[in-house]
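Encode chain A's predicted structure.
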Amino acid sequence: MNALDDLAGGLVVSCQPLPDDPDDPMRDPYVQARVAAAVVRGGAVAVRVNGPDDIAAVRPAVDVPVIGLYKHGTQGVFITPTAAHALDVALAGADIIAIDATDRPRPDGRTFADTVHLIRERTDALILADVATAAEGVAAVEAGADAVATTLSGYTPASPPTDGPDLGLVARLVAQLSVPVIAEGRYRTTEQIGRAFEAGAQAVVMGNAVTSPLWITRRLVPATPRAASAPEKRE
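Encoded structure for chain A:
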């Protein structure tokens, strides 16, 4: 048994402020720790947390696996982009390290396989490969990943964007891989969660739809009469 086994058949909740809004009031380690504790109380089997400070704050607040990552930058490979970022995530207390495992060049010049090797040498953390395509998932497992997530589907040149989750990619990965497949990316409804498990997912990750009041409110406000009558903003 390991931390990935604990995720089986459950909901993982991503506890992160909006990456594209530096003024998001949720951007605070203490706040994220409280959010994490709340979703675990609600039944989440694990939490996904960004950055060493937030990971260190969340770790003592929950008794479930922490999937840690380290977003650096906004373009190209920015989810735990280097081996140094991965080690920082492990040192902060993550049980599982989520790493961009797409075939794009990494900022430190290492391959994904190089990064996996270094993590194995220095930590006991498991490795979750965030991918955009089935081929990337296969390559990530060959490089030593313990599990694969569909996190980056729709966000790279190799994968066209979709409005909802990429359930097809979940099914293709499950058919081709011997490791757990985590469904992540634009999951917003119970129906989508059910379909991901039908496709063979080990677990499903939901983020903004659960933990971001800013994101949720922005999606709801346009349905109000006030928003409909507001003058259009010009840049």
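Strands lie at 10-15, 46-50, 66-69, 96-100, 126-130, 147-149, 181-184, 203-206.
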